[in-house]
Design goal:
The chain is α+β, with helices and mostly antiparallel strands. It contains 15 helices and 23 strands. A four-stranded antiparallel beta sheet has the order 2-3-1-4, covered by helices on one side. Strands 11-12-6-22 form a four-stranded antiparallel beta sheet.
Length: 622
């Protein structure tokens, strides 16, 4: 009945590590206000920090010494009410230059942080916030992509000198009309050679000849995935404006997006931010007027625009835009040959032709990149009764982010250089990708969870878990005595393993997740009940205590494995196909089942072997 020494040492190490990595959950997060720059790579200045501290003090809110973190500052507060008051005060004094975010600051000791031990995250239903479910119109995305194909098909047919009557879109794809079968066959060769994304068939009707172009299933899936991913990037970038820590933006199913904003209670504000847009315009710098005066009105056909962060003098641009941001099909940040940050731009077919035509006749002219952003300004006013009044006004920000000389004819792919930092390049690429939605979206569901409800859920969940633990402990010890004590110890270790794994994986604990923990507490002793009852039966049949223990564990193992495996399969299916509360419940249940298989069988048997294995004549306390 003795285990090898290495096996017992391994069990002890696993349990110790689990206990240590579950300890951060004993240190609750603290309400805090987080200050970050309005754009990437911008740190909070000392002047802004001093203004924030003064504003919080004037609001009568006590706070701890601010903590600097990379490009942000964290100010810890004592309660959620103080957190909201501090956020309002700082927003008023700093305006739109900084993002003032609600956050929860960890209080984990330094030695646990050094071990990378993290507490479990709290889900939306426990922290409070806003939940949106948006549906993406993927059919519209396909229709928009087909529109771009129409222009490309017309261009290739004209260049090949093929006579055609028209190209139109219908419910099945594209329809190209010809007057003769010979023209149709020539068009078929052109389309086969230039458009491999289509499945082409021929048909004739009413003395006309047609080519039916249907997108291949793989291309349809690719277009749908691209549209959904672009919308995901768009929503993520817009959510960043809220400054919400640990916001969740994720795909659900084939055409839906879930947005969860913990800590946000203003649904209207969240919807306004999600509707925000940003785009680019490529324009030539005006060359027809020498040394124009920036303080004077712009000459006809031109406009003055400020340079980003006023790093340079204002730039006089032509009113006509070469290409706008709706022609940007992709943008990625990187580095040029001199290791300087850059953004690689991809235009669609029409945008590439426009850029080529414009740059071919204007070599060595200067071209500017104009960033256009629709924003919301918050004004704090007083009404006629002297009460505070918050007014939000939409406005447009246009600024030049780059000016470069056209050295060669540009096409659908080129790059933007002259950026200050890799973070700025990454943010610009993200904003370009998020400048416009690839497909329309509409709100299918929206709901708000209050923070008081979240705290009530946490309190009830903790009480129910503690009550369940106590009742199970009393039952096991009263019914199985020393064997029951080993089961109670294993149950506590099961909780430690569960919490440490959820913290390590970054899994969020939701209210259904608490239910999964309570259920796993019961399941953790279920295996021990089967084993202990089997040991009692073997003793009653006349086996010696040692033989009864061995037979009890070995003969009950198959039953325990089958029952737990079936539950694990169901939990895996719920994780794969479920979402929201169902998924939160399944994650904790699956982790709890895996942990209970280890603790209920391996840990309890090791303890029982240690207690009874060295005795020659024993009487089992069961």
């Amino acid at each position: 009945m003795r285990n090898p020494l290495w096996k017992e040492l391994l069990i002890v190490v696993i349990l110790l590590v689990s206990v240590v990595y579950s300890l951060p959950n004993l240190y609750p997060d603290q309400p805090a206000v987080q200050l970050t720059g309005a754009s990437a790579g911008v740190s909070v200045s000392e002047e802004a920090l001093n203004q924030a501290e003064s504003a919080i003090s004037m609001a009568g809110v006590k706070f701890k010494t601010p903590e600097r973190q990379k490009d942000s500052v964290l100010i810890r507060l004592s309660s959620a009410e103080d957190q909201l008051r501090a956020q309002d005060a700082v927003r008023r004094v700093l305006g739109d230059n900084y993002v003032v975010a609600l956050n929860l600051a960890p209080t984990t000791p330094g030695w646990l942080k050094a071990l990378h031990a993290n507490p479990m995250k709290l889900g939306l239903d426990l922290r409070g916030g806003v939940h949106f479910l948006l549906q993406v119109d993927l059919e519209k995305a396909v229709a928009v992509r087909l529109e771009s194909y129409i222009n490309d098909i017309r261009t290739h047919l004209r260049e090949a000198k093929v006579q055609y009557r028209g190209v139109q879109q219908d419910s099945e794809g594209l329809l190209v009309k010809f007057d003769t079968a010979q023209d149709r066959d020539k068009g078929l060769d052109v389309i086969h050679g230039n458009f491999p994304d289509f499945q082409v068939s021929t048909l004739a009707r009413e003395n006309s000849f047609y080519l039916r172009l249907s997108l291949l299933p793989a291309r349809l899936r690719e277009i749908s995935d691209d549209a959904l991913n672009q919308n995901l990037n768009t929503i993520r970038s817009r959510v960043n404006e809220l400054g919400v820590a640990e916001a969740v933006v994720q795909r659900q199913g084939a055409n839906r997006i879930i947005v969860e904003l913990p800590g946000v209670q203003d649904t209207a504000e969240a919807k306004r931010v999600l509707g925000r847009t940003a785009t680019l315009e490529f324009r030539f710098v005006d060359w027809s007027h020498e040394n124009p005066d920036p303080t004077a009105p712009p000459p006809p056909g031109t406009e003055w625009f400020p340079f980003k962060d006023n790093a340079q003098a204002p730039v006089l641009l032509q009113k006509h835009a070469i290409v706008t941001g709706d022609r940007v099909s992709g943008a990625h940040s990187g580095f040029d040959e001199y290791s300087r940050p850059q953004v690689d731009i991809n235009l669609d077919g029409q945008g590439g032709r426009l850029m080529t035509d414009a740059t071919r006749t204007n070599l060595y002219r200067r071209m500017a990149v104009l960033f256009v952003e629709q924003k919301m300004r918050t004004l704090y006013l007083k009404d006629a009764q002297g009460k505070d009044l918050i007014v939000r006004q939409p406005y447009t920000v246009k600024q030049v982010i780059n000016v470069a000389t056209v050295q060669s004819v540009l096409g659908s792919q080129f790059r933007i250089t002259g950026l200050d930092s890799p973070a700025e390049a990454a943010e610009l690429a993200l904003l370009l990708r998020a400048g416009s939605l690839a497909a329309p979206m509409y709100f299918v569901e929206e709901r708000t969870v209050g923070p008081s409800l979240g705290q009530e859920n946490i309190d009830k969940g903790v009480r129910s878990t503690i009550l369940g633990l106590l009742l199970v402990m009393v039952f096991m010890i009263a019914n199985y005595r020393i064997f029951g004590l080993t089961a109670v110890f294993a149950m506590l270790m099961n909780l430690a393993i569960l919490m440490s794994l959820m913290g390590a994986f970054g899994a969020a604990l939701s209210l259904p997740g608490i239910a999964g923990i309570v259920l796993s507490v019961g399941m953790s002793v279920d295996a021990n009940v089967l084993i202990f009852e089997r040991v009692r039966e073997e003793v009653a049949l006349g086996l010696s205590p040692h033989a009864a223990i061995i037979a009890g564990y070995e003969r009950a193992f198959t039953t325990i494995l089958d029952s737990n495996l079936s539950i694990l399969i169901v939990a895996s299916i719920l994780i794969a196909l479920g979402a929201g509360p169902v998924k939160g419940f399944a994650v904790t249940l699956a982790i709890g089942i895996i942990a209970s298989m280890f603790t209920a069988i391996t840990v309890t048997r090791t303890l029982v072997n240690r207690i009874y294995g060295t005795r020659r004549s024993v009487r089992l306390s069961i």
